[in-house]
Amino acid sequence: MKISRHPLRGAATRFAIPLLAVPLLAGCGGTPAGPSSATPPRADCTTFTPDAPCGSFASVGGTTGGKDLTWAAKGAVVVKLESVSGQRMLSVRTPCNPLSGPADVTDGVLTVKELASGAMGCAGENSAQEKWVTDLLHKPVTLKYDAGKLTWSNGEDSLVFAPQS
Length: 165
Description:
Layout: H1 9-26, E1 43-45, E2 57-64, E3 67-68, E4 78-84, E5 87-93, E6 98-106, E7 109-112, E8 116-117, H2 124-137, E9 141-146, E10 149-154, E11 157-163
Antiparallel strand pairs: 1-4, 2-3, 2-4, 2-11, 4-5, 5-6, 6-7, 6-8, 7-9, 9-10, 10-11
């Protein structure tokens, strides 16, 4: 059995597909929604405590329920506090995902509002360590800087950091 082709069917397909793409591409070259001279947000380093240096801190230890967190001693958590367009922002690198959110430091107590997490997804110990840090930050954290170490604590849980070089 011989299959015959319609002489215009191939031509119609060749012209229809590019024509369908024209409306999709029409919005690509337009003018931006806002002014093109928008200033990007400015980020300035902010200290956790008045006597702590400005910059990133890497974990050198921690405890939970009176037991050492051996994973924290290896620099597994890195934290930084910045002022972005006048709003303090905390950024945290955990063994799994990065965490960040608007933060307030009042009378030596760090409070993080709306903590956001990356969406990488981890299993096992890295996931558990990220959850532990997240749980720590869901409560107010007392800050102390002494002998070159920054300590975060809230009840039975604590993390100790050293300035990152």
